[in-house]
Amino acid sequence: MRTAIVCLLCCLAVGGLPLACVDPWDNTLRATNDVLVVDGTITDRSEAQTIQLNRSKADSITGRFGSLPLTKAQVTIIVDSAQVVVCQETTPGTYQLPSDFKGQIGHAYQLRFTLSDGSRYLSNQQVMQPVPPISKVTAQFNPKAISPPFADNRFTAGYDLFIDLTDPVDQRNYYRWKWTLYEPQPWCRSCYEGVYAKNLLEPIVPASYPYYYQSTQQPYEDCFYPPVGSLPRNRLANQYADNPCRTQCWEILHSQGINVFSDRYSNGGLISKRSVAHIPFYQETPCLVDIRQESLPVDAFHYFDLFQQQTQRPGGLSDTPPSALGGNIHNQANAAEGVIGYFTASSVAITHYYLTRTDTQGAEAPGLFFALNGRPPVVGTYLDFILNLPLDRTALCVPLDRRTPLKPEGWP
């Protein structure tokens, strides 16, 4: 969702004056180039439940939008207009509910927060709807699976993933799909104009030209950078040093677009071969795809459906630029302020799909490292300024939002 919001803001910034826009928040955005962005969904899964608060501003010269996390806010979730659950700020701009909290079908949730400047915001209520399970997943290789605006026309090959599900009868259902891709990652750390040191490096006294160092027994596990102007730093100038992983490691990639669906014309019965993911063909090794099928309240569906149309239209920048979509969150003292994003509640069904990549029709993969970095890995670098350097040149797989050393659930 956050990626799609950024996509919309970028279109607003570079698309010129959007004369065809009729959104009520449009004039406010053009006048201020400053907008509050909120992203948060309550689910019924045992997972981190977070709310993200950011302020997007356009540079006065380039018009490009940048994102500033909003810290020190007071964020709460109101359950059924009675219970108040307090969120804690875990990283700048990210507020997490208690670890044992998860939503329940049929209950109503409302977001309320106060920014550090005293501005107060409130969402409308969102009632969590049930969602059926995914009954079947199929994959098909497609040389043109990845298309604009999510392809750079260099790596377009991939797999189209389709699902079957049985839609409940006698009730209107609204769906949203997301995916998470786990790719085996053999490279764990890149140092630019530096070297990866497993142990702390100390200068050999006197610490002067030509700057020799020795490896100690104290753990370091980070990039080491010789002093600017020193001979080692000069010889490392404009060079990368890439280090393989010491243990197993997976790169985590997330879906970027919005994919929503209403059962208006297929209420009840089998929904077959619904397209839910386009997985890039970055490497030939198998990967794991987590497919999330989420329920949506009707108002949330209409918001995301319009967002999907505006951010994924095929015309590109030559098409009519999109307008900014005001969501369901409002400034309690200033109803004219536009807030982008939507707070909602979703029941979630997850399917783990192991993609073997055995039918690529002779296509060649660029390699994960090259696809993500635009260059091949560099394994050799200047290291003779370090005495007694350990032979082990591997790096730790540090748990991050986009990397994990833990085997994903569903990996065989």
Automatic annotation (TrEMBL):
Kindly state which keywords UniProt assigns to this record, in alphabetical order.
Answer: Signal
- What Pfam families does this protein's entry cite? DUF4249 (PF14054)
Indicate the secretion signal residues.
1-20
Source domain of life is Bacteria
User: What is the designated name of this protein?
Assistant: DUF4249 family protein
Recorded source organism is Spirosoma endbachense
